[in-house]
Amino acid sequence: MIEPGAVAFTVVAVAMVVGGLVEGASLLINKLLEDKTPPHPDKFESYECGELTIGDPQSVNYTVNFYPYLVAFFVAEVASILALAASGSPKPNTLIGIGLLYFSLVVGLVWLRKIGIMRWTR
């Protein structure tokens, strides 16, 4: 009688061999069908869409002014997912927890507005 562990090992080994053959065949086909022309020199520029680079691209300073909005959006999304998950069992403790979560979200947004990071007007 064949042991179940040996059958599972055989199935996994065969799947790995078949996967390796498929991957190897796809790499070989890709190598045979690839474009043999050398790349254009502009391909390695910072902007390959035709825009000329002004100055040194390595010395450009990027601002992170949008980062607080990203964090606030992420926290709001997590709060919404938790509220959706908690809506299946509206027990008092669950409702209090979700209420505190939204309260902390509002307090965080008010704090960001107060210190001047999030300005809704120009």
Automatic annotation (TrEMBL):
> Subcellular location, in the record's words?
Membrane
InterPro entries in UniProt: NADH_UbQ/plastoQ_OxRdtase_su3, NDAH_ubi_oxred_su3_sf
Which GO terms of the molecular function aspect are on file?
Answer: NADH dehydrogenase (ubiquinone) activity
Signal among keywords: no
UniProt keyword Acyltransferase present: no
Q: What GO terms fall under cellular component here?
A: membrane
Q: Which UniProt keywords apply?
A: Membrane, Transmembrane, Transmembrane helix, Transport, Ubiquinone
Major location category of this protein: membrane
Family the entry assigns: Belongs to the complex I subunit 3 family.
Protein name from the UniProt record: NADH-ubiquinone/plastoquinone oxidoreductase, chain 3
What is the organism field in this record?
Answer: Ignicoccus hospitalis (strain KIN4/I / DSM 18386 / JCM 14125)
Q: What is the lineage of its organism?
A: Archaea, Thermoproteota, Thermoprotei, Desulfurococcales, Desulfurococcaceae
